[in-house]
């Protein structure tokens, strides 16, 4: 079942931008440095680390990277009485050769075609700063969106799986973008939502803008060009569940028509294009928040990258602690655990007990998500529901690691930085 994102009526608080310096488009800057006297007492927060991005580099006319993106196809209204049929065609989704992805809505054969791309099962971040730099299309009945669904969808149906709309625009309001949560008890025409008006009242289709969220376990803040315009927390769900403590996947699409935006009229021109410069994930909202140091087993031995090698597939093992870089782990607020610039990864995205654990390029998938379990001190991979332990349950120098059924035993206890 596809999510039925009904928008019959919508009441939103429109936030005008403050006239102030904004963050750069690529990475959230931390506050200006304090004076020298204050610096020693209160050091500046470290910049957030980029954990995944697609910069859309490639030859003109080529398809978006299939390692990251799926094409969802078909018509039928998509739960909103939309008019377009989504297709996997380079006429509707292609790189432009200048570092951009272009999604094009066309009027063809008495109907409309467009594209809808998702990262489901491939890139599913949890927490951090998530942003895209986009030049949106324009026109009555045109509905561009940069949004997310809970990684358990469709096994967990909408809206229980959760939806985070980072940016939506409807063509009749060219100067306004919307940021919204849909979840159990707050969805469709009654979501938790707010809006942002262009500070000069200009159309967002006139130029590129950066649309982002800062996502923490109990809070999501929406930003446009670095200006935060709303924050929702677990206290804002009207007593309903907060379903945003799980991995979500990205969606980029341009819809034509629908209950909320209305339908194209004589003023609407085709084709219309959404141009995406990049999509990026940083490990923490607004910079900082990660912790770096040793990860130790219950007997004091260290988690280690075998041979301090950086090749994809390098085994993760136990080793006597020696304070080298192969034993310096960064536990990010995005759920990753990183060393040597790469991520702690379950081999092949496997979920079976006994699947080995390795080092791999950070890619935002569920194979690279880890959660510290309070009480048992286990390090759990939510995708598999299994915990990190040494192979054979032996805590010796050189013992490789795997995922196994979580049992609360001492060999599954880890002390994090």
From TrEMBL:
GO MF term (any one): hydrolase activity, hydrolyzing O-glycosyl compounds
Keyword Glycosyltransferase attributed: no
SUPFAM superfamilies: Concanavalin A-like lectins/glucanases, Ricin B-like lectins
Top-rank taxon, per record: Bacteria
Biological processes annotated in GO: carbohydrate metabolic process
Keyword Signal listed: yes
Alphabetized UniProt keyword annotations: Signal
GH16 domain location: 27-287
Pfam families: Glyco_hydro_16, Ricin_B_lectin
Signal sequence, start to end: 1-31
Family, per entry: Belongs to the glycosyl hydrolase 16 family.
Full protein name: Endo-1,3-beta-glucanase
Gene source species: Promicromonospora citrea
